Amino acid sequence: MRLSGVVLVVLVIGHLLIQLVLDGGVSKIGFAFVAGRWASPFWQVWDLLMLWLAMLHGTNGLRTVINDYAERPNTRLWLKGLLYTATVFTILLGTLVIFTFDPNIR
User: Fold this and answer.
1) Burial class (CB in 10 A: 0-12, 13-18, 19+), 53
2) TM segments (predicted)?
């Protein structure tokens, strides 16, 4: 998780610099901006890595919190089951959106 944290920091700082500094700020971000950006495989992979690493890193942290604070085994089982279900759902849906995004939809 340390390596993923370092890679995630680099990806997020790069993302923020590009979105907020180099491309004119938040006011420039819209459907056309995202469509242009995701037309490039480079940005698809960048955003995909950011999604996967953030979700896995956050899931591992929340799993640790559940293990530390959920006292009953049954509660721990249900909380981790919900966590893993939400993680898989979010990763699959996010990956699907990144790779099937159609800029021609209006």
Assistant:
1) buried
2) 42-62, 82-101
